[in-house]
Amino acid sequence: MRLLKELKANQNLVLELERGYYKSGLAGANKIVSDNFKSICYIALSKPASAVMDDLKKEGVDIKKYSFIDCVSKKSRLKKLPKKTTFISSPKALTELAIVVSKKLHDEKYDLVLLDSISSMLVYNNELNVVKFLHFVMIAIKATKAKAIYVIMRNDLGRKGMREIELFADNITWLE
Amino acid sequence: MRWFGIAKKVLVVDDEPDIRTSVKQAVEGEGFEAKTAGNGKQALELLRKEKFDLVLMDIFMPEMSGREAVEAMRKDAKLKKQKVAFLTVVNLSEQGQSIVKKLKPVDYFQKPVDLDDFGKRLRKLLK
Fold it and tell me: What is the ipTM of this complex?
C-alpha cells in the first residue's frame, strides 16, 4: 500500500508506471483511490472519458465518486454527453485546462485529482509548457486540502526537460 | 555600486524578454552593471568569456534550465565557485529545497519580487 501511504504524507504525488504495466497500474491506483477518497476528479488525456468510465466499471471501481475532465473527445461530435464531464477543446489547450482545473478545485472541493497522464500531455505539448502547467496545478492543489496523482511513464520522467518536476512535486512514487 | 570606479557585474538569466529587461533595470537601479542571457546555455557561454560577481538565474527555461546550468557550473573548474542566486516562480517542495540546496545558491528570490526587498538583498550579496 505504498500509494496510500504516500498520499497520506504528500499532496502532489507523481506516480511512475512502467510502460508494460500502464493499464494494470492505473487500474490498481484507481481501486486504491476509489476505496479511500470520496470525490475524485479524473483528467483524461489518454482516452475519452467514456472509455475511462467503461474501464473503471470493468475493474469494479465505484464511478459515482468520479467527475471527469475530457481533453480528448470532441464534444460537438458526441451523440450522447457523458454525465459529470467537462470538455477541454484540445489536449494542447493547457491554459484552458489549467483554468478549468483551478475553478473546479475551488467550486467542487475534490478530495483527489488524478491526471492521466503527463506522458499523453507530452505527445501534444513541449516539455517546458508541460512543466509550467504542472507547476501551476500543483500550486492550485496546495491551496486546497485535495491530494493529486500525476501519472507518468517511467521513460518520460527520464526525459531531460522533465527533471524539474522533482523541484515542486512533493514526491515521486511507483506501485509495488 | 562602484569600487574604485569598477561596478560589480550581474548576469540576469531568464527566457522571458520582459522579465530580463525589468530585472536588468532593477539591478542597474541599484548601481550595478547588468548583462542578460536567455537560457542556461547562453549563460554558460557568457560566463566562460566574462567574469560576473553574481548570476541571477531562472529555473524554467528552454534548451538548458537554470538547474542544469548551475549543475554544469559546479562541475566546471573555472565556474564552480560562481555566486548564483535563483530568481524564479518555482514554489519548491521539501524535496525541491534539498535538491536546490546541493547547488549552493547564495539566495533564492521568488518571483514576483518586492523591489525594495530585492534591492536590499542584492546589495548584501554584492557587498
Answer: 0.86
CA-based nearest residue in chain A for residue B98: A167
The predicted structure's pLDDT at residue B3 = 55
Distance of residue A57 Cα from the nearest chain B Cα, in angstroms = 35
Closest CA to A88 of A56, A141, A42: A42
DSSP A140-171: HHHTSS-EEEEEEEHHHHTSGGGGGHHHHSSE
Q: Please, what is the Cα angle at A56 between A53 and A61, to 5 degrees?
A: 125
B100 interaction partners in chain A (CB closer than 8 Å): 167
| Separation of alpha carbons A147 and A138, rounded Å | 10
Question: What CATH number matches the domain at B2-122, 3.40.250.10, 3.40.1030.10, 3.40.50.2300, 3.40.1380.20?
Answer: 3.40.50.2300
Which residue in the set A135, A161, A170 is minimally distant from B95, CB to CB?
A170
- Please give the pLDDT value at position A83: 78
- Sorted by where each begins, the domain ranges of chain B are 2-122
pLDDT at residue B1, rounded to an integer: 56
Reading the block at residue B32, the C-alpha cell is 550595478
d(CA A17, CA A155): 9
Contact criterion met (CB below 8 Å) for A127 and A161: yes
User: Which domains, and CATH codes, for chain A?
Assistant: 2-174 (3.40.50.300)
Which DSSP letter does residue B42 get?
H
Nearest Cα of chain A lies from the Cα of B108 at a distance, in angstroms, of 13
